[in-house]
Amino acid sequence: RLFAPSAGLRLFAPSAGLRLRGSARPLATAAPSMSMADAALPTLEDLTDPREWLEEVEGDKQIGWVKEQNADAVARIGEPSDKPLYGRLLEIMESDEKIPYIGRVLNGLYYNFWQDETHVQGIWRRCTLDEYRKAEPEWELVLDLDALSAESGVSWVWGGSTLLDEGPGVRKDRVMVSLSRGGADAKVSREFDLEGKEFVAVSDGGFELPEAKSQLSYKDRDTLLVGGVFGEGEMTDSGYPRSVWEWRRGTPLAEATKVYEGEQSDVSVGGFAYLDRGRRYELRYRSLTFYTSSYELKVGEAAWAPIPIPADANVGTFADQLLVTLRSAWLGHPAGALLAAPAERLMVAGDDAARSALLTPLFTPTETCSLEASTETKNYLVLSCLDNVVTECRFWRYADGAFSLERCLKGEVGLSPSFSAVDAETSDDLWRTSDGYTQPTTLALAAASSPDAAEALKALPAFYDAGGVTTQQFTAASADGTAVPYFLVSKEGLPLDGSTPTLLYGYGGFEISLTPSYSAGIGAAWLEKGHAYVQANIRGGGEYGPRWHQAALKEKRNKAYEDFEAVARDLISRGVTSPSKLGCQGGSNGGLLTGNMLARHSGLFGAIVCQVPLLDMRRFHKLLAGASWMGEYGDPDTDDWSFLQRYSPYHNLDEATAYPPILFTTSTRDDRVHPGHARKMVHKLLELGKGPSTHYYENIEGGHGGAADNKQRAFMSTLAYAFLERTLAGAAAGGKKVEL
Hints:
Layout: E1 2-3, H1 36-39, H2 60-77, H3 84-93, E2 104-106, E3 109-114, E4 123-127, H4 129-132, E5 140-144, H5 145-152, E6 156-163, E7 174-181, E8 187-193, E9 198-199, E10 208-212, E11 215-220, E12 223-227, E13 243-248, E14 257-261, E15 268-276, E16 279-287, E17 293-299, E18 305-306, E19 314-318, E20 321-325, E21 338-342, H6 343-348, H7 352-358, E22 360-363, E23 369-376, E24 380-387, E25 390-399, E26 402-410, E27 415-421, E28 429-436, E29 442-447, E30 450-459, E31 469-477, E32 483-491, E33 502-505, H8 520-525, E34 532-536, H9 546-550, H10 558-573, E35 582-587, H11 589-599, E36 607-611, H12 630-633, H13 641-644, E37 662-667, H14 676-687, E38 694-699, H15 710-729
Parallel strand pairs: 33-34, 33-35, 35-36, 36-37, 37-38
Antiparallel strand pairs: 1-19, 2-3, 3-4, 4-5, 6-7, 7-8, 8-9, 8-10, 11-12, 12-13, 13-14, 15-16, 16-17, 17-18, 19-20, 20-21, 21-22, 23-24, 24-25, 25-26, 27-28, 28-29, 29-30, 31-32, 32-34
Helix pairs in contact: 3-15
């Protein structure tokens, strides 16, 4: 198992698969009036913020303002649910022809979570492998969230399950099921009986955790390791658990025993107990920052001991081996390397020389190749690598205490093969998926010993007409000369006269890579119309490993924005599009990216879609999980503000600038990125007289993904594409002249 303690706290973009000029308007009557001098605040010279009132998430005045903006956006863009695209996207999302991916295999049964028109909130169901092989399997219902929501009056959103694993040969009969209200990060967790297909009542000794950003793991059948449910004093400044407690079955939660704690300034603290191929491990960690952690490990009956690795490394186990992924050079191995070492021997090694002698490199990065992900079967470690953003899979077999590389499978430009374990504890079987921008996803069953000989199981239909649509990979030269790759998906024979409406998508943060995938939403809403779609692999992401990410950290954040602008300029110089025809889109950290595309007013874009964004970089660390991202952006309460202010869109707006049309979207229930970022940005734009070009829609549910069910997802996607279509497709080719 590989652990990245902060992975669950990352700023994720809304699903790319659904990514989807108006007249002047009045301000909401609920908003406090302000003078023109106050309207410009905050500025880089005066940090006074007159809009902090919008940070109260669910106040009557604030929700009144939100509803007025929502109504205005719908009035100007058009009611999404009335548009043919809405019905088509909803049909795609709720299609019975979607692939029912398997999340778990327990006791020989294959578990799937499913949503469609009938099961809006979703159902958890299971079947045998032989049944799964059929075109229309007969599923056994395990849990119905629609029925549960109707019974409780709460719109429950699936949050996954945590298994009680008592080892090989012991039947798996209990899980902790996590559910959130409206898609929030905070979840309620309840023990569930897989045999009886029902929750275990507290009166019968069942575990139940209240709504919180909790962390949990079974230590044994009658003990949970838990954190995050003991009040504000046991939370970090980032809003995550800062302690681990042992809670015995049948006792009140208040009587749980604290067994480990960190500091309030940590990002998060957690602990796990698990079996890895029959070996028992207990691991606990402190995430000191987003990218540094301290780990302690207990192997079998041995005492707890710190794991002697760099603070910025990630760690995991495979049988009796420790797996260490480096973010910085260590003992002669470069950043981005994956190393293996015997766990018990590494833990007691006396010095660096002794540790170095134990290390076996399983992956060493090059200038073009990085480690993207990994999966494990019983005897294989499968690495997914990116070589110039083209996937390559490497199969390492573990036997007799050593790893050996058996084979490599290379993908093609624009296609992304990937593997995941069917049941890592019992077999070497793998799920093999393959897709690309124009190739519908296929799912096959393969063995790790012969992954190219796979049994085809499922395939998506062609949800859009991709005839004549091609994928090309290009590079653009950034301001400092760095070559920045990007994918262009467009009709073959595209006229190079600047006339094609083009949507440029980017993220550029948290070492997250953007790779090719099949998007029925983009295809149906955009590509079928002859428009072009572009995905930029800018710095800050993980496409070339830690160095690519670290090149845009903190004071170097401008590199990500310069890369994105370089791709835009390259598209224009090639004649693919022109400024009036070029739109950009990004969510979460990508919302900070697109917010900066507005504030930098480069003249490159005719429309911008900014989703669940960060925008106020002076106060981001004080809002919800924001403190956890200071490792990515910096600390605005220190001298870091000297560079943070340069890419805080909220502080860099001015009345004199003519901004392109922009649509901001967010979610009231987002408890990761505060909706106040988008609210305050929009309010300021309106006060500065930018109402004709500013549009805002806040979904009342949805969490950080922006929507809680398929109808909401289809609504939000249609709204975005309708805005882009209206703004870009109707514009004349050309636009403001820019320096290329």
